[in-house]
Specification:
Helix content is about 40%, strand content about 20%. By secondary structure, the protein is an alpha+beta fold. The chain is globular and about 50 Å long. It starts with a helix and ends in a 15-residue tail after the last helix.
Length: about 150
């Protein structure tokens, strides 16, 4: 991702993460705290941590139209266990194979940088993403469950 877009993407990604946590059942206060902590941990200097990669997902057209993003990098404290921290394709461009291709290219990049495994998290409500990840060979490693006590 070009330097001139990174700061805007970091802010937008933090907000999307906050909203996703709320949709998954977390309180707005806790979701905001976790989003801010994540941003500080991984982008505290305004740049990704070493080895972390943030890519634009672009159409192969003359204008290289940006339709999404992919963020991959090692899990904290490891260089061989990597994580898909974020992948998103704009609504108008979903179901065209762009996320699949971005993930496959991301896996190749991770492998080239020393990764031996790659994982990801998907919220329970996001069944479309779950189906995509399963079709790419990702398997459930853990399940977190929650219940509202209103």
């Amino acid at each position: 991702m070009p330097e001139d877009r990174l700061a805007t993407w970091i802010r937008a990604s933090q907000e999307e993460f906050r909203l996703s946590r709320i949709e998954a059942g977390e309180s707005a206060e806790l979701a905001g705290l976790r989003a801010a902590e994540s941003t500080e941990r991984y982008f505290g200097t305004g740049r990704p941590l070493p080895l972390h990669q943030v890519f634009d997902v672009v159409l192969p057209d003359a204008g290289c139209t940006v339709v999404g993003h992919l963020w991959i990098g090692p899990q904290f404290g490891s260089t061989t266990d990597w994580w898909v921290w974020d992948v998103e394709i704009a609504e108008a461009h979903r179901r065209n194979g762009y996320a699949r291709e971005a993930l496959q290219l991301g896996e190749a990049e991770a492998r080239a940088l020393g990764a031996q495994s790659i994982g990801l998290n998907v919220f329970g409500y996001n069944t479309g993403a779950q189906a995509l990840y399963e079709s790419l060979g990702y398997a459930i490693a853990a399940v977190n469950m929650s219940k509202r006590l209103d």
